[in-house]
Specification:
6-stranded mixed beta sheet; alpha+beta; 34% strand; single chain; 4 helices
């Protein structure tokens, strides 16, 4: 008898940041383990998780510093007048939850899987940074998969990416969902030389509904399927989420 699966769970039901961070972090590991069984041995899978933080970059002003006399090698203390601070920046690192797949034979990145976090969608510059990163991957023949569960933010990073690339997705452009999953690749056209062919597999996501399977493209004619449902299921069960 097949065990019951866990449909898409509302990770943002509360404001507890630890819950969705825990799901995202473990889900990345589950995705990696899932793909490791399918991807040919010449490909290397590397998880990349970076949690954003707020910090201030400043030039510290010290009342004293140590000066060394080169002639007698004795250290003496001297009071210094610090120069005016030239750099004073407040910056928020956005969260990164991704799996990178590298072709070790060609020594190049071929695919990236991105789990979107709230910090990727909370401000225009954060969204622009995420979109620019994905556009740069596609321009380098790296396939991109985006899984966005952040339904509280109405922004759709996939449609913003399409705008960046000056394209339109007829499926999502009319009423872009705030939560979705999409696999994307931009490749050489199989028939028309000197032309490119943009392909995508977009799906809207809904709380309580199953998740789709997406193709992860490793080359023009080589792919593996990523089962978001089973990896999400294993993640929730491991964390004892129901």
């Amino acid at each position: 008898m097949k065990a019951a699966t866990v449909p898409l769970r509302d990770q943002f039901l509360t404001d507890d940041r630890r819950e969705w961070q825990g799901v995202h972090s473990l889900w990345i590991s589950m995705i990696l383990l899932h793909l490791e069984k399918k991807v040919p041995s010449r490909y290397q899978l590397i998880p990349n998780v970076h949690l954003g933080r707020h910090y201030e970059l400043d030039v510290a002003a010290f009342e004293t510093d140590v000066l060394y006399d080169q002639q007698d090698s004795h250290a003496t203390l001297a009071t210094l007048a610090p120069p005016e601070c030239l750099t004073d920046i407040e910056h928020d690192f956005w969260d990164i939850y991704e799996v990178n797949i590298t072709d070790t034979a060609a020594n190049r990145l071929v695919a990236v899987i991105e789990l979107v976090g709230p910090a990727n969608k909370d401000r225009p510059d954060s969204r622009a940074a995420f979109v620019s990163k994905c556009a740069a991957f596609l321009q380098q023949d790296v396939s991109v998969t985006i899984v966005d569960l952040v339904y509280r933010s109405q922004f759709n990073l996939y449609t913003e990416l399409m705008d960046e690339l000056r394209m339109t997705d007829r499926i999502m452009s009319a009423s872009p969902p705030s939560s979705y999953a999409v696999a994307i690749r931009d490749r050489d056209h199989p028939i028309r030389h000197k032309r490119r062919k943009f392909e995508s597999w977009p799906y809207a996501l809904h709380i309580g509904q199953p998740l789709p399977a997406l193709p992860i493209w490793l080359a023009n004619d080589e792919w593996v399927m990523l089962d978001l449902e089973s990896t999400h299921d294993e993640t929730c069960k491991s964390l004892r989420l129901r």
